[in-house]
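Quick question, first post here. What does this chain look like in 3D?
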Amino acid sequence: MNLPLLGADDIEALGPTGAVDALEAALSGGLDPETSPARHHVTVPGGELLIMPATTQRVTGVKIAGVAPGNPARDLPRITGSYLLLDGPTLLPLALLDGAALTTLRTPAVSALAIRHLTGPVLRHLVLFGTGPQAYGHLAAVLAERHVERVTVIGRTPLRVAALVEHARELGVDARAGTAQGAEEVATADLVLCCTTSATPLFDGALVPDGATVVAVGSHTPDAREVDTTLVSRSSVIVESRAAALSEAGDLLIPMAEGAFSAEDIAGNLADLVTGLRLGEQPAAFGRPRFFKSVGMGWEDLAVAAAVHRKAAP
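> Answer (accepted):
Ran it through. Tokens below.
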């Protein structure tokens, strides 16, 4: 069997908007994130192996992703892996995809789908924490969805911050480097993107303006978080699925352990947004930040992989 190999070029050809549309179509078509199979974690010598299955009537798939914390020091990608796409009824293989490239497209698309439903068409000030592939991917995804007037980039390495700032300027955005803690920048933001590997909060959640949106994607373990308890307790919280968030999202689990947040405080999941939830129509949502927490789920990989396969088909 000659299995088609879909690499980074094939995946990038779908583009951010194509990926967001694929996710939205899956949810508007009735996919329930709460019933998506759980991610399996396996500790291995190089780091962590993630096994992420998902299925629909038409297609089934599984991503095997490696998270190798030591790879950046070797000038290698932190996220590795492959995605096997199968025909749903027969389970015959359809294609093998580059798992790292798929993740690089899928994760920003999930955030952009939330942003599509949580923000207005114009973003005056975007604050972007992080300088890795996800930061670049999120910038591209947001620019595909919204007009952004100004971007502030915050990261640990000045050279990498400068490179992302220059990249944003090449895309036509007024961009600059921010301060290490981002206090002044966060206080004037209407969208904050957290795309880091930090295990501790990046900024003081009390500084986020009412009505602003914060998106955090960097962690998927119960003991790590990019935002603090103050932000979570102030916000209308949206998740991909309650089950996944309450299993893996330290951004929520740590405030819950502190007694400052509960599962009942989650305003909705991504399917709720797509199928009609409007936070602005809920009295409790007025005058509050909106916080979207993503941990990454198998159904998202499947939706985007299937869209890549359809686009690449002769």
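The longest strand covers residues 47-55.
The first helix runs from residue 8 to 28.
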